């Protein structure tokens, strides 16, 4: 690396502007000489010891955002959404509902707690990439097993930082969710990346099949005792629940198990007839990624089960229930993503702070008579929960298990238990 020495000479001392002094005879005039010289590079010293911009995020609106990369390298396309959670980035990374998306964290500082092997919400990371403002250069958590950058690199997930996430968030709020391309490949031009973003679409794509399990399995793990927080309303009676895996989070299963349920998890394509042969006490339709209209086979499965056993739908499961009941779903402008969304429980009158992650919603005006809207999102008035007592149906358009997020809505699992118990007693 070349270094330069500068020597400035002030030929005319009068160019100095000095403050007035009560004793001007003590003033001193200094001479500063300036010259430039080039020296040889110091052996072994990197030309730039700091990381420079080596990545681009190109959005379909034509904007190009220079950034620095961490995690995996390459080129990836996805829908950009922003998440307002302050913590819990590892749970967000492993939430299958983010398949096909780049998650932009509005909280500027990410990575300071590293990652561990206890907070995984699925078997792998399904999202397309992570966009953050500042990555922590150190980790300080007693459970930390490795850094965020190493974690993403091992799982082939791209990440970028040192980008203006506030400006991108404002753009997404104004224009709606945008398709973007992340790339660390200098050989690809901006025009090529822009064309990639404009030729890709997430609407109408079946993303559930790529995140669902392939074979049925039994789930037995409960919430770890050190994280358990709700023992009320349990009488020891066990209920058999079949959970459809549309991209299910582990903490949903843990909460059901903690409430005494025996759980069988089945793939998204599992026939309803096979489920009914098992004579379960209830069926859970889980969260999952993408457009509910892109998975008509799942809607048909829900239709075949409705009225046969009590059902509980969460997020994608809520949307599929809405369609199965004859309602319509629509794509939201930029969706709900974060652990701080206020929801009004119309039955109790309480306001819950909820964890949410969805880009689609049910149109309550399209639902048939008898279907009750039980929860409303207070940010935009969208439908956040449904009930149809005539067919023992309940659903939420957010995550009662949180992880990450507040625990205000954990009672929903207890309500599902009560619903199954009522039907069992009356059978």
From TrEMBL:
Residues 53-183 form the Carbamoyl-phosphate synthase small subunit N-terminal domain. GO terms for cellular component: carbamoyl-phosphate synthase complex. One of its GO terms (biological process) is 'de novo' pyrimidine nucleobase biosynthetic process. Pathway: Pyrimidine metabolism; UMP biosynthesis via de novo pathway; (S)-dihydroorotate from bicarbonate: step 1/3; Amino-acid biosynthesis; L-arginine biosynthesis; carbamoyl phosphate from bicarbonate: step 1/1. It is an enzyme of class 6 (ligase). It catalyses: L-glutamine + H2O = L-glutamate + NH4(+). Pfam families: CPSase_sm_chain, GATase. PROSITE patterns: GATASE_TYPE_1 (PS51273). GO terms for molecular function: ATP binding; carbamoyl-phosphate synthase (glutamine-hydrolyzing) activity. Heterodimer composed of 2 chains; the small (or glutamine) chain promotes the hydrolysis of glutamine to ammonia, which is used by the large (or ammonia) chain to synthesize carbamoyl phosphate. Belongs to the CarA family. This is Carbamoyl phosphate synthase small chain, chloroplastic. It comes from Prunus avium (Cherry). The lineage of its organism: Eukaryota, Viridiplantae, Streptophyta, Embryophyta, Tracheophyta. The gene is LOC110771713.
């Amino acid at each position: 690396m070349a270094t330069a020495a500068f020597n400035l000479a002030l030929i005319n001392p009068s160019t100095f502007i000095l403050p007035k002094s009560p004793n001007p005879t003590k003033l001193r005039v200094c001479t500063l000489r300036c010259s430039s010289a080039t020296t040889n590079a110091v052996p072994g010293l990197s030309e730039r010891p700091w990381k420079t911009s080596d990545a681009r995020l190109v959005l379909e609106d034509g904007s190009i955002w220079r950034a620095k990369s961490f995690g995996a390298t390459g080129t990836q396309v996805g829908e950009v959404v922003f998440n307002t959670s302050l913590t819990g980035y590892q749970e967000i990374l492993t939430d299958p509902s983010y398949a096909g998306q780049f998650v932009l964290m509005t909280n500027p500082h990410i990575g300071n707690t590293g990652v561990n092997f206890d907070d995984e919400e699925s078997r792998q990371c399904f999202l397309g990439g992570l966009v953050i403002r500042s990555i922590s250069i150190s980790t300080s958590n007693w459970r930390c097993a490795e850094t965020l950058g190493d974690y993403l690199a091992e799982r082939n997930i791209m990440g970028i930082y040192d980008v203006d996430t506030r400006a991108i968030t404002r753009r997404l709020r104004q224009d709606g969710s945008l398709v973007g391309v992340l790339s660390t490949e200098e050989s690809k031009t901006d025009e090529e990346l822009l064309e990639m973003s404009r030729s890709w679409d997430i609407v109408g794509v079946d993303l559930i099949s790529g995140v669902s399990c392939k074979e049925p399995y039994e789930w037995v793990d409960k919430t770890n005792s050190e994280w358990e927080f709700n023992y009320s309303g349990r009488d020891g009676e066990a209920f058999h629940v079949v959970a459809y895996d549309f991209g299910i989070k582990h903490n949903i299963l843990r909460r059901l198990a903690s409430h005494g349920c025996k759980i069988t998890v089945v793939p998204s394509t599992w026939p309803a007839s096979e489920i009914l042969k098992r004579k379960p006490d209830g069926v859970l339709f889980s969260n999952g990624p993408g457009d509910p209209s892109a998975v008509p086979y799942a809607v048909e499965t829900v239709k075949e089960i409705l009225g046969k056993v009590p059902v509980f739908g969460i997020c994608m499961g809520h949307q599929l229930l809405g369609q199965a009941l004859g309602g319509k779903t629509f794509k939201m402008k930029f969706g709900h993503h974060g652990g701080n969304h206020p929801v009004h429980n119309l039955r109790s009158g309480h306001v819950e702070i909820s964890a949410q992650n969805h880009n689609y919603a049910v149109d309550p005006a399209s639902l048939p008579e008898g279907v009750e809207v039980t929860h409303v999102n207070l940010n935009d008035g969208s439908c956040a929960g449904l009930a149809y007592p005539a067919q023992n149906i309940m659903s939420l358009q957010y995550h009662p298990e949180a992880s990450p997020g507040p625990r205000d809505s954990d009672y929903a699992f207890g309500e599902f238990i009560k619903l199954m118990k009522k039907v069992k007693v009356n059978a």
